[in-house]
Amino acid sequence: MASTTFSGPVTSTNGFIGDLTGNVTGNVAGSGSITHATTSAINATATATAAQVATGFITSTSAAPTTITLPTGTLLGAALSAAKGTIFDLYIDNTGGASTVTVAVAVNGILSTAAADTPGSFGDLTVASGVTGLARFTIMFSSATAYVFTRTA
Q: Is this structure's pTM higher than 0.85?
């Protein structure tokens, strides 16, 4: 198999082999998994840095209740190179913790209508400890500096 460098759109009828770097836009289909090569640990109440959130995967092993406040929309938007329409998934893993983790939004971050209307599901901002302590949140940018936050799993 030969290696070639292209500029512009590329289409393959037989798939691609290798790593994908850069931004992906449009529809992505197929099977497999997403692996977060870098994770961040937040084990005490704190405001997460934009770099920590940008890893997409935060762990907590705290024995005490922990609140993780997300960074401002301006800081998070800059870290993710966000623009209106950017969507980002954030996973919180509290399976190693002994108490709940609560997620809070900061300036220029608001809960979605679904989160505000149904606090027991989309608006559930707490992540239990132990084997059920995994959650996925979706961050949707309405501009480069403002986001809407919803629990999606």
A: no
